[in-house]
């Protein structure tokens, strides 16, 4: 897991990261989101031990990065946004080179290379030259390289930039698979909408500070406050209005089309479940009932607007 507490990083005249705390557990994919200059790269570089923090605690899979940097480096791997690649090597040769640099014995290397290629779905390009790969395939080859030492913790900088929609779906599936293997993944990105699909949690930074963090749903609830319930009924519209208006969590009801109603709702999940039970109990035939999901894009704008702390 990644455990960061009170991290501060100063450059000469700039405090790039202020007292940042972050917790990402095994099996979690956390999106580190923020506008240009928010401090994401600086935070990632400090977590990786590439920059000496002014102060703060950094633990990776239980290893203290500041006290045992060599051991911490063994559990973490990093994929930068524009990694250098060796165009004149075949894909397997490129990976074999890195397996060698991690001191993986020669006999074990083919198995390790194949496992990494298989994880990212690039086995069929194993014997192709790196130069012939598309941008998305290069990203996958780089991710395969990052997975060579079988790291417990993965830090990915903008992994989906320049990747087409098909490639992003692949990346999503790869990340899900890594999470299901218990890896801890921290991704920085500007592509907010996609992060909702990739991530189980988000950490939103602005001007060096963590503005809000937690599971996507918890952050959404915290930032957006009242949600909107979308209720579709087969019949019983008048009864629906009566029941909704009597519910203390609801502040109004609006018919958006023949059968669908939107209800601004302040209640929690328990209260919403109670409202659903009341509707059904009053004879309203409910076809669907749920909260409208806001994308991270909207969340991000609201965080910026509200300056939560
Ligand atoms: N080497 C450096 N020396 C001095 N200041 C720096 C240095 N690197 C970054 N900064 C400053 O630190 C702050 C955070 O920068 P950082 O690159 O960490 O942000 P970021 O969120 O990764 O931005 P981007 O999304 O544009 O990559 C910015 O104000 C930046 O100007």
From TrEMBL:
InterPro entries: AAA+_ATPase (IPR003593), ABC_transporter-like_ATP-bd (IPR003439), P-loop_NTPase (IPR027417). The keyword Hydrolase applies. CDD domains: ABC_DR_subfamily_A. It is an enzyme of class 3 (hydrolase). The keyword Cell cycle does not apply. One of its GO terms (molecular function) is ATP hydrolysis activity. It comes from the Bacteria. Its EC number is 3.6.3.-. Residues 2-232 form the ABC transporter domain. Keywords: ATP-binding, Hydrolase, Nucleotide-binding, Transport. Belongs to the ABC transporter superfamily. PANTHER family: ABC TRANSPORTER, ABC TRANSPORTER, ATP-BINDING PROTEIN. This is Putative ABC transporter ATP-binding protein YxlF.
